[in-house]
Amino acid sequence: MRYELWIGLRYTRPKKRAAGRNHFISFISMISMLGIALGVAALIVVLSVMNGFQKELRTRILGVASHIQISGANGELAAWAKTASQAAQNPRVLAAAPYVAAQGMLSFDQLVRGVMVRGVLPVAEEKVADFEQHMKSGHLADLRAGEFGIILGSELARALQVFTGDKVTLIAPQGLVTPAAVLPRVKQFKVIGIFEVGMYEYDSGMALIHLSDAQKLYRMEDRVSGLRLKLDDLFAAPRVARELQRGLEADAMASDWTRSHANFFRAIAIEKNMMFLILLLIVAVAAFNIVSALVMAVTDKQADIAILRTLGASPGSIMAVFIVQGALIGAIGLALGVGGGVLLAHNVDVVVPALERLIGMQFLAKDVYYISELPSDMQWGDVMIISGISFLLTLAATLYPSWRASRVNPAEALRYE
């Protein structure tokens, strides 16, 4: 072991019978360790929770939306079976489902709500979306051609005050032109199910009907609005969409989920980056506490430094001694922070409910946020970045005190000894 490392490690551990000054230096070092540990643990937990929210949001959106959507330029896709066959040739595409998307108005007992109507084939739709997992009552397979059944979002059903088995009136805006006036097309549907995905946009404004019924109501014959595709890797959607676009006809357009819901994920990414920078300041403050601890250590050890210099130690060796001391303080704090942060991130679902019971308050009310538990998704890549930056801050904090130690004049230090 090089003597610089040995002396640096020895200076980090206080003497058993140390004077009050040495105890104070050790106390500051301990506070610096705990500050770094707290900052690193907070960073890991907060980023894990934000990753969890991002994953939860993505899961809820893709439970209703699709990885890739192919639609017609004028809102209609004629040869959709041929397009689906072409898309299925891509090895990333697992399934394709046609759909009809149109606007309408639902009426029930003097209550009226605007709605986005989606006509689907239940068997094909279940392969590209997860509606069945979010059904509060009924089943997606209960939609049958010609029976004019309808499945409503939970908020929409609550606003209309309807339940499974009730009959609602769907009004299509595309009307019938008569000599007297333009009459809207009206059809009565039976509510056969209610779903809740936890996204207000869908729960309050979407209704599902059978594809055949939608084509009849909106007079689309055998045409559809587009195709919804599911991939084996949702993160490959932008690249696959570009590949599919090259093989599509001019009147068809492919778009992926990252474009259709870009605002959600950009907002989360910005918040994650800002929280990272803000919490990193905690680590920076704790790291630069090491400066004060090392400055006091250098002042206290001036006689030792002078003796080492007279024995032949170079200024670089003296500097290395105190860099080792500061780096060890940072490394211990970093290890404690990473261990505590990883442990807490994996047990957020246990710690948060216990804290809620302790203070008698619920952080996430399900009727407000749709999520009753804090989601957590710890990623080792984030842990490595946090650890690396924190350790670099610690090393940066040791440079000035170490440089001051290397500049100590042996004669001046030993004058009054």
Report on the structure:
- The protein has 417 residues and is α+β, with helices and mostly antiparallel strands.
- It has two domains: 3-59 and 264-414, no CATH class; 66-260, no CATH class.
- Helices cover 55% and strands 19% of the residues.
- It has 16 helices and ten strands.
- The chain has a six-stranded mixed β-barrel, surrounded by four helices.
- Strand 6 and strand 7 (182-195) form a beta hairpin.
- The radius of gyration is 33 Å and the shape is elongated.
Q: pLDDT under 50 segments (min length 5)?
A: none
Instruction: Please report the distance between the alpha carbons of the first and last residues.
Output: 30 Å
The succession of helices and strands, N to C, reads HHEHEEHEEHEEHEHEHEHHHHHHHH
Structural class: alpha+beta
The strand order across the widest sheet is: 2-3-8-5-7-6
Oligomer type: single chain
Rg, rounded, reads: 33 Å
Describe the main β-sheet briefly: 6 strands, mixed, barrel
Helix content: 55-70%
| Number of contiguous helices | 16
Which overall shape is indicated by the principal axes computed on the Cα atoms?
elongated
* β-sheet strand percentage: 15-25%
- Estimate nothing, just give the exact number of structural domains: 2
The tally of strands reads: 10
Mean pLDDT: 83
